[in-house]
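This is your field. Pick holes in the following sequence-structure pair:
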Amino acid sequence: MATYSVHLRLLFLLLALSGVQVLGAGLGINYGQIADNLPSPSRVSVMLQSLDVSRLKLYDADPKVLQAFSNSSVEFIVGIGNEYLQDMADPVKAQNWVQQHLQPYLAQTKITCISVGNEVFMSNDTQIWSNLLPAMKMVHNTLVNLGLDKQVIVTTAHPFTIIGNSFPPSSGTFRQDIIEYMHAILDFHSQTKSPFLINAYPFFAYKDSPDKISLDYVLFQPNEGMTDPNTNLHYDNMLYAQVDAVYSAIKAIGHTDVEVKISETGWPSKGDPTEVGSTLQNAELYHSNLLKRIQQKQGTPAKPSVPIDVYVFALFNENLKPGPTSERNYGLFYPDGTPVFNIGLQGNLPGIIYSSASNINVTHILSHHHHVLV
């Protein structure tokens, strides 16, 4: 570990001396840890801070991670798992959670948001649906009581499957079975000025219908795109169409005052033979092209003045994730710090290639414009 740290410091000294500015501001990254071979949070902290990555999203409130990033400029979304939602509706348990998992770290670590639950409406258990909003409200009320609500907001991340109709984007609607829940959740967002988080993966749509969906359209490559017949707005990629479908669904039940942010998106670099499109080349194109658009502060066709706000999934390949092969291959990095594919910097700046934990080279990289990453 000592050798690793020394080499990292030498590398970033070289970059500083050469006048290279590594741009990381803006893009968020999901830092999942369902693996048994990941580097320690302290090593991750050195790597990401030196590369100027500015925002991370956790699925818990791991104290080792929050301590490792103390006195850094990295902003965190921390998570409360679905298994705790029923407890969080209890004011005593909610206060205990905040005082144990959040408050001790706020002085040194920038925690700006709590995501209460994750993809709750993917579950077939309707009891957990009913537990979600009471938990969100109680955590928010706890923050208010402790004087922390101006510093930390409360939200939850939804799967894109909450959308019943997504085409054309202007006709986006929520699923009928969750409309009543969405009404109440959006009222909460409106009252607390917190964002609506959506996990959006064009990969899933392409994998399920590769004969009907253009690969270029989902990868942000040049393509004919499609025009929404109701608005005459032109879409050249699926992610923007998905986001605008969510905005339309929100508007359809009476809200125009809630911002949509992308809490997860990504593309796997490997998959099962049946997972069409899950290749290294496609993963590199998806991330490269997305990051270029983020750098340009693009908005969607329906919200051109609101730059898309994105958290990419995920930081590392996670070898213990269940499910198809793709689930273990969404990472930007292998656990040893090696990039899974080339992630460009602005223009032709040098990229950072970790050939091993103790052998780090600075190399000329493809000129993909990357808003955020290493």
Q: What stands out?
A: The chain has one domain: 2-363. The first strand starts at residue 28 and ends at 30.
